Amino acid sequence: MTEMLKGTLEGIVLALLATGPAYGYEITARLRDQGFVDIAEGTIYALLVRLEQKGQVDVEKVPSEKGPPRKVFTLNAQGREALDEFWSSWAFLAERLAHLKAEGDK
């Protein structure tokens, strides 16, 4: 499960950001609410840095009541394209896996 998650986590985070801007801890909390309880905050922060380097998210520093400013990540047009590609790949894989399962269940 962990290896499968590593291959899809970037798309999952892009999908979360498609629902609205968020900062790192908030993304981690939302993932945990969705059942991804074993994801470490450090993994998410590293992934967000990669998304920023790829130009798929915009970053804004927003003042925080509890310490230094937070980096809020927003999906941009390039990120939306990457998310569309992710969903397309996911649909293809899901269809192929369903077909293989059906063949195996015969």
Task: Walk me through this protein's architecture.
With about 110 residues, this protein is of the alpha+beta class. The protein has a single domain (about 1-105), classed as Arc Repressor Mutant, subunit A (Orthogonal Bundle), CATH 1.10.10. Helix content is about 65%, strand content about 20%. It contains 4 helices and 3 strands; from the N terminus they run H-E-H-H-E-E-H. The protein has helices spanning about 1-15, 25-35, 40-55, 75-105, and strands spanning about 20-25, 55-65, 65-75. Strands 1-3-2 form a 3-stranded antiparallel beta sheet. Strand 2 and strand 3 form a beta hairpin. Helix 1 (about 1-15) crosses helix 4 (about 75-105) and helix 2 (about 25-35) crosses helix 3. The radius of gyration is 16 Å and the shape is elongated. The model has no long low-confidence stretch (mean pLDDT about 95).
